[in-house]
Amino acid sequence: MIKTLFKDVAFGRIARLSYLGHSILLFLLLIAYMLIVVLAVGAGEHIIGGDLQQAQDQLRGMLTLPFLIITGIVMGLLMFAGLNIMAKRIRDIGLPGWWMVLALIVLGMLLSYFVSQQAGSGLHTLIWLLLVLIPGNAVGKQP
Q1: Is the pLDDT of residue 91 over 80?
Q2: Rounded to an integer, what distance in angstroms lies between the CA atom of residue 113 and that of residue 103?
Q3: Contact at 8 Å (CB) between 45 and 55?
Q4: What is the dihedral of CA 88, 77, 122, 112, to 10 degrees?
Q5: How far apart are CA 49 and CA 27, in angstroms?
Q6: Range of weakest confidence among 8-22, 57-71, 119-133
Q7: 61-77 CB burial, b ≥16 within 10 A, e <16
Q8: Domain-wise residue ranges, the chain
């Protein structure tokens, strides 16, 4: 699993079902991390007796540099793993992996900026569905 998510960056390939499983796993890991952070904040509020002002002060105290660094590392690892499996899946279809990922990111950003945030999210969902549904070697012959 670690090899699929973080290795074979330049030449790896991944099948449809494996892509589906790994992308769902990454989504669940993201949700779990966010849930841990929310539970930690909620537990802190409960411990101090539910005082809103104290909870806000405690939250400001929690958002320190180490917390932000850890969150940045976790989000960076999850984002790299997601982009890596996307590049592998695109390569399995028969297209250049990282170049297509870069083009799709730029297209999504342009749609979000010039059209709407919903258009960018819709493009992301459409791409995910296409990557799950298009069979391997659909565009060209890969060795």
Answers
A1: yes
A2: 15
A3: yes
A4: -120
A5: 33
A6: 57-71
A7: eeeeeeeeeeeeeeeee
A8: 11-133
Which of 8, 6, 7, 9 shows the shortest CA–CA distance to 98?
9
The proportion of the chain whose per-residue pLDDT surpasses 70, expressed as a percent, equals 87
Q: Which amino acid is at 131?
A: L
Which pLDDT tens digit goes with each residue over 54-88? 766 777 777 778 888 999 999 999 999 999 999 99
Predicted confidence at residue 48, as pLDDT, reads 61
Q: What is the 3-state secondary structure (H, E, C) of the chain?
A: CHHHHHCCCCCCCCCHHHHHHHHHHHHHHHHHHHHHHHHHHHHHHHHCCCCHHHHHHHHHHHCCHHHHHHHHHHHHHHHHHHHHHHHHHHHHHCCCHHHHHHHHHHHHHHHHHHCCHHHHHHHHHHHHHHHHHCCCCCCCCCC
Please state, in angstroms and rounded to a whole number, the distance separating the CA atoms of residues 47 and 58: 11
pTM over the 0.85 mark: no
